[in-house]
C-alpha cells in the first residue's frame, strides 16, 4: 500500500501472476481454461482497436476497484500508445462514474504509471489474463 | 423488463429524467449541482475524443449494472458515431470483465439499441447527467 | 421507472413488502428470522439517535444502489425528523462517495421524497426489514 | 416490483429473454457467443452435481443482487430437485453474506418460488444464459 | 500479494483474525455480537450439509471479491471434504458469474489451496466469523 | 493485513497518500481536480454537522469495503468527537446492511481505532480526499 518497496512488489506480483496462471491452466478444468482464452481474445483488435479496448478495460477495472487489474491495464494501455493525458482522462471517467471510493485506487494507479514512465517497472508481458 | 411496451417506457423515463434533473438542480445544494456539472464536463472532447469517452462510460455502466446509465450511454455512443459492431465489442469487454451477471443488462441494452436503430426511440438529448 | 403511476407503485410495493415479510417470517428458517430481528434492532436509539442511524442507513442504501431500501430509509428519515436540506446533504455524500452511477437512484429518491412531502404517499410503517 | 401482475411479468420476461438471447447469438461477435456457450457449460454435472452448481449460482446471484439471475436459478434449482427448506437455507447464506441489502431481492425470490410451487409460473427452459 | 512469504502472511493473518474477533466480541455492542453468532449458525448442517453450505459461502466470497473470506471458505471446504476437482468447479462458477475481475482472487485462492494441500498452512479453526 | 507492523504501515500509507494526492493535483486534468475539491466540500458543516457527515462517510466506506477510506473516516470521526460506542453503532449498521463480507474490514477498522486511541497512530490531517 505504501510506495516504498513498490518496485519489488510489482516484480514479485508479476512472477506470482505468471506462476499461478500456469498452475491454473495446467488444471483439468475446461471452463476455467476457456474463460482465460476468452479473456485474451477480448482485447484483440477488431471493429475497435487495441488502444480503445484497453482503455475500456482500464475504466472497468477502476470502477470495480481491482488494483491488480488496474495495474495490468495501465501497462497494456501504455504498450498500446496511450499517453499520460489520455490516461488521466480515462482516470477522470472512472472517478466520476465510480465516485470517491475510487480515489485510493487512483493513487496506486498514478504511482504505478509514474514507475512505468521512469523505467523502474518493466513493460507488460503479452496479454495473460487479468 | 419485458420488451412489449419498451417505447412508452423509454419516453416516460426520458420525461421523468428531465423533470427530476431540473428538480434536483433547482435545489439549494451546491455539492449536488457541482457534481452534475462535473459529470457533463467529463465526457467533453479532450485528449480523448467523445466517442472513446462514451464507450468508456458505457462499459463502466455495464459492469456496474445500471440500466438507466447503460441506455443513456448506448444513445450517446450512437450519436458519437459508434456503429453496431463496435457497440458489440464494447458489450463483449463488459461481459468478460463483469461476468454472466451482466447478461440481463446486455439483453436490455441490445433491445434498446435495436429500437434506436429502427427509429422507435428518438436520439438522446445533450448530455444531462447519468 | 417513470413517475406517472408512482403512487400506485408505492402502494402496491408497500403491500407486497408486508405480505412477503410475513411469508418469509412464517417459514421455519431460524437464520433468516434472526437476521430480520437483528435488522430491526440495528436502527433503535442507542449511543446514536434514530435520526443519525437512519441517515447512515440511507447513505449505505444509496451507494449500494437499492431503490427499495432507499425509499424505505427516506421515509424513515422523514419520520425521524430529517428535513429536506438535511436529506439533500445525505444525498450529496452518497453521490460523491458512490459516483454518477448513483444519479438514477437519486432521481427516484427525490421523486419519492416529493410525494412524501405532498402527502401522496403515506408515512412509513414501523421498521419492518429493508 | 409489486406481486399483482407477477405471472404476466414472468411470462413477458421469459419471452423477452428468449428473443433477445437469439438476437444476441445471431450477432457476429465471437467473444459474446463463446461467453454464452461457456455459461451453459458451467452448470453441467462434473465433479459436482447440477443441484450443487445451481445452488452456488443462486447464492452468487443473490449477493450480487440481480433479480433476473435469481429467478432463473430458483427455477433451475427446483428442476434439479432443491426443496423449499433447502432453498431457504441457500437464501440464508446469501442474506448473511450479503446483508440486509439482499432483503428486497429475497422477497421477490420467495414470491417467485411461491408461484413456481403453485404452478402459476411454468418450469424453466433448458439453461439458456443468465 | 506475492506468493513468497505467503505462509508467514497466513499465520500472521490467522492470529490477527483471532485477536480482533475476541476484541470485537468483548465490546458491548449486541447487534455486532448477534451478527457474529448468526454468521456461525449459518454454516451448520441443516436441510443442506456443511459441504454444500461452505461451497456456497466460497462462491459468494469470490464474486464479492474478498480475499480473507475466500481463504477462510477454501479452508472450511477442505475440512468438509471438498476435493481439488470440486474446488475448481466452484471456482469456475464464480469466474463465469463474476467475470475476469475475479481472476486475481482466483490466483490467490489457488495459491492458498496449494499450501493447504502441501501442509505449509494448517487447517482452519472452527467457524469463527468471516 | 496482519496487525504486527500496522503502525509503520499506517505511517507509510499516510505519506504515500499525501505524496500521491499532490502528484494527482499537479496534473493538468480539471475534472480530477474539481472532483477532489468537491470531495473536500462534501464533508463541511451545513444543514448536517461534520460528525454526522463523517459517520455517513464511514458507513458508506464500510459497505463498499474500501480499507483506506474506512481508516480515513474512522480518524475523521474521532476528530469530530465520535466516541467508541458511537463508532461501534456505525460499524453495526454497516455490518447489517453489508453482511458478513464486511467482517474482515471491521477487524481492520477496530485495530486502527485501537491504535488511534492508544496514540500509536497520529491524528488525521485536514480532509484530503479519500
Care to count the β-strands of chain A? Answer: 0
Order of helices and strands of chain A: HHHHHH
Give the low-pLDDT segments of chain A: none
Proportion of residues in extended strands of chain A:
under 5%
Largest sheet of chain A: none
Topology overview:
The structure is a homohexamer of 130-residue chains.
Chain A: H1 6-26, H2 30-42, H3 50-63, H4 67-79, H5 84-98, H6 103-118
Helix pairs in contact in A: 3-4, 3-5, 4-6
Describe the model.
The structure is a homohexamer of 130-residue chains. Chain A is an all-alpha fold and 130 residues long. Chain A has a single domain, classed as AhpD-like (Up-down Bundle), CATH 1.20.1290.10. Chain A contains 6 helices and no strands. The first copy, chain A, has helices at 6-26, 30-42, 50-63, 67-79, 84-98, 103-118. Chain A is globular and about 40 Å long. Chain A starts with 5 loop residues before the first helix and ends in a 12-residue tail after the last helix. The model of chain A has no long low-confidence stretch (mean pLDDT 91). The interface between A and B is medium-sized, with 29 and 29 residues.
Key words describing this protein structure:
homohexamer, 130 residues, 0% strand
Short description:
The structure is a homohexamer of 130-residue chains. Chain A has 130 residues and is an all-alpha fold.
Amino acid at each position: 500500500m505504501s510506495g516504498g518497496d513498490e518496485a519489488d512488489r510489482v516484480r514479485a506480483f508479476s512472477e506470482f501472476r505468471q506462476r499461478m496462471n500456469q498452475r491454473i491452466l495446467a488444471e483439468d478444468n475446461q471452463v476455467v481454461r476457456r474463460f482465460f482464452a476468452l479473456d485474451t481474445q477480448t482485447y484483440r483488435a477488431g471493429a475497435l482497436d487495441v488502444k480503445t479496448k484497453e482503455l475500456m478495460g482500464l475504466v472497468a477495472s477502476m470502477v470495480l476497484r481491482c488494483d491488480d487489474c488496474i495495474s495490468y491495464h495501465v501497462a497494456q494501455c501504455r504498450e498500446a500508445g496511450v499517453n499520460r493525458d489520455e490516461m488521466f482522462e480515462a482516470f477522470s471517467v472512472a472517478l466520476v462514474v465510480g465516485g470517491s471510493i475510487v480515489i485510493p485506487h487512483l493513487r496506486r494507479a498514478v504511482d504505478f504509471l509514474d514507475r512505468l514512465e521512469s523505467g523502474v517497472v518493466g513493460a507488460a508481458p503479452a496479454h495473460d489474463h487479468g
